[in-house]
């Protein structure tokens, strides 16, 4: 799925009545089959951008188009992985994965096949009858992935999917995600504040800066896959992105102080 | 290594025994507490104690137990209980039918909250017994006015619990359902109601207690049947044994109905 983001802006009303510009005229084009990571410090509007593409929220100005169709409401073509996994706690793992399939009107037999396929694919066989409360963080994340992937979306949006996991598990799931992406070619958009994660996964990294949320730079990553986190190139690029992020944040801070001083 | 294995085998066994002994002591203490209460009651009546309260006027616990045994053989006793149980069940079902959708609506829409809540807050603090005159005017039969009182008793706790539960449904669950193709009406059935279920049960267990208070009030004031009517009628006929039997029967029925709610809750909410 191709995504065109055309001069999109979004402001929020803060509790004190102050307006916060989460996104300030953002434009971005994502090609079909690309793996894009959006990196930036908190407050740069990266999650908001993801929700606009998902259709969960609407922009104040500008437009988001997926395959030339303007995004209105959420659709099963665009899978969304939430930061807190958003599994339905009253449904078992199987029922959670079945949720979208049932609504779609899949036959019982096809549903069973599809669920079994994704349970196996995600390494969840045997966990089908457990409730989300009985699972570890890593397993919950995999259920969320299975629930979204079994609808065969053309685009997968992920909002800091591995933020709550420990380092080893995070690295393993990142490797798994690359494997999934390589088997089911579709467009991936992943938001993270972890530079290393972005470098490991992305074809292109979009670096954003906060207050107001803007795209600072877009960096194509030409490293060959599978990538090694310890290679000299990897470390060099990581350093480079860190610098870009720091400069971006510092500039935003200066702008804000200037705006405060001037009447 | 052999010793180690032995120690492992012995440790949980000893722990289990200690737990069992603890539970046995707890039961012994509870039984003794009830027996002690009955004994104190018996002694107070037997010696016709009139100060600080007129304990001497009460019937003796053993006489009551004897009369209760006779009652248990009579059809009338069960008819009264069934009449009251039916009224409570009807009030609870009506309460659920009205309070759950209203609570959901008030919880989700600030406009609905502004529109309805002031009126509801006006009625909520009114004790159930004070509804009785209005109930008598509104309904043609005594039966329906008593059911109305039990409905009012169930309605407000369920409403408030539902409103709070609806507000606490995580937005990410609703958004996730939308992303999985769930439309706005189906979200109510598939997300809001199951997510609110624990809150609804909290309201239900409070509401069923209030319903029992309502039904007894209604029956005492205006009924011709029911356990509340029987209790009050027996007092007027100077049959104090029956009054106290009625009182304890009401207590047991209230206890049984909250146990029933808890049992249903356990079967419905298996995921907690």
Automatic annotation (TrEMBL), chain A:
Residues 3-235 form the ABC transporter domain. CDD domains: ABC_NrtD_SsuB_transporters. Keywords: ATP-binding, Nucleotide-binding, Transport. InterPro entries: AAA+_ATPase (IPR003593), ABC_transporter-like_ATP-bd (IPR003439), ABC_transporter-like_CS (IPR017871), ABC_transporter_ATP-bind (IPR050166), P-loop_NTPase (IPR027417). GO terms for molecular function: ATP binding. The keyword ATP-binding applies. It comes from the Bacteria. Pfam families: ABC_tran. PROSITE patterns: ABC_TRANSPORTER_1, ABC_TRANSPORTER_2. PANTHER family: ALIPHATIC SULFONATES IMPORT ATP-BINDING PROTEIN SSUB, TAURINE IMPORT ATP-BINDING PROTEIN-RELATED. This is ABC transporter ATP-binding protein.
UniProtKB/TrEMBL annotation, chain B:
It is a multi-pass membrane protein. CDD domains: TM_PBP2 (cd06261). The chain crosses the membrane at residues 27-49, 81-108, 120-139, 145-162, 191-213, 244-264. It is found in: Cell membrane. InterPro entries: MetI-like, MetI-like_sf. Residues 81-265 form the ABC transmembrane type-1 domain. Keywords: Cell membrane, Membrane, Transmembrane, Transmembrane helix, Transport. Gene3D superfamilies: MetI-like (1.10.3720.10). Belongs to the binding-protein-dependent transport system permease family. This is ABC transporter permease. It comes from Paenibacillus oenotherae.
């Amino acid at each position: 799925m191709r995504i065109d983001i055309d001069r999109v802006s979004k402001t929020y009303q803060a509790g004190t009545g102050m307006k916060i510009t989460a996104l300030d005229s953002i434009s971005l084009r994502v090609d079909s089959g690309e793996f894009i990571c959006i990196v930036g410090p908190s407050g740069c509007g990266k999650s908001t951008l993801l929700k606009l593409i998902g259709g969960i929220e609407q922009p104040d100005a500008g437009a988001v188009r997926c395959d030339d169709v303007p995004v209105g409401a959420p659709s099963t073509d665009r899978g969304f992985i939430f930061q807190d996994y958003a599994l339905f706690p009253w449904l078992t793992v199987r029922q959670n994965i079945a949720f979208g399939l049932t609504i779609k009107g899949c036959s019982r037999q096809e549903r069973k096949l599809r669920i079994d396929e994704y349970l196996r694919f995600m390494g969840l066989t045997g966990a089908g009858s457990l409730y989300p409360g009985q699972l570890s963080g890593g397993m919950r994340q995999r259920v969320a992935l299975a629930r979204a992937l079994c609808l065969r979306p053309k685009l997968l949006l992920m909002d800091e999917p591995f933020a709550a996991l420990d380092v080893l598990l995070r690295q393993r799931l990142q490797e798994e995600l690359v494997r999934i992406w390589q088997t089911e070619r579709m467009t991936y958009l992943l938001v993270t504040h972890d530079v290393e994660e972005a470098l490991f996964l992305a074809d292109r990294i979009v670096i954003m800066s906060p207050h107001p949320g803007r795209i600072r730079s877009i960096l194509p990553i030409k490293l060959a896959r599978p990538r090694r986190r310890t290679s000299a190139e990897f470390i060099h690029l990581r350093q480079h992105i860190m610098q870009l992020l720091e400069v971006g944040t510092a500039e935003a801070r200066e702008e804000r102080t200037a705006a405060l001083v001037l009447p | 290594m052999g010793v180690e294995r032995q120690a492992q085998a012995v440790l949980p066994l000893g722990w289990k025994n200690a737990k069992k002994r603890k539970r046995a002591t707890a039961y012994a203490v509870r039984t003794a507490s009830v027996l002690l209460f009955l004994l104190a009651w018996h002694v107070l009546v037997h010696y016709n104690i009139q100060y600080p309260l007129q304990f001497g006027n009460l019937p003796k616990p053993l006489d009551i137990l004897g009369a209760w045994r006779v009652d248990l053989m009579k059809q009338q006793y069960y008819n009264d209980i069934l009449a009251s149980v039916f009224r409570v069940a009807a009030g609870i079902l009506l309460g659920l039918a009205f309070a759950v959708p209203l609570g959901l609506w008030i919880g989700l829409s600030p406009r609905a909250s502004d529109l309805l809540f002031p009126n509801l807050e006006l009625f909520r603090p009114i004790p159930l017994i004070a509804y009785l005159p209005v109930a008598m005017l509104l309904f043609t039969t005594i039966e329906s006015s008593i059911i109305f009182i039990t409905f009012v008793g169930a309605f407000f706790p369920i409403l408030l619990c539902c409103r709070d539960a609806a507000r606490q449904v995580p937005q990410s669950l609703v958004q996730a359902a939308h992303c999985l193709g769930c439309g706005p009406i189906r979200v109510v059935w598939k997300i809001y109601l199951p997510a609110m279920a624990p809150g609804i049960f909290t309201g239900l267990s409070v509401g069923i207690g209030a319903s029992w208070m309502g039904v007894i009030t209604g029956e005492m004031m205006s009924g011709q049947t029911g356990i509340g009517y029987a209790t009050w009628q027996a007092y007027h006929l100077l049959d104090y044994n029956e009054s106290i039997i009625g009182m304890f029967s009401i207590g047991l029925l209230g206890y049984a109905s909250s146990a029933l709610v808890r049992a249903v809750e356990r079967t419905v909410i298996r995921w907690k």
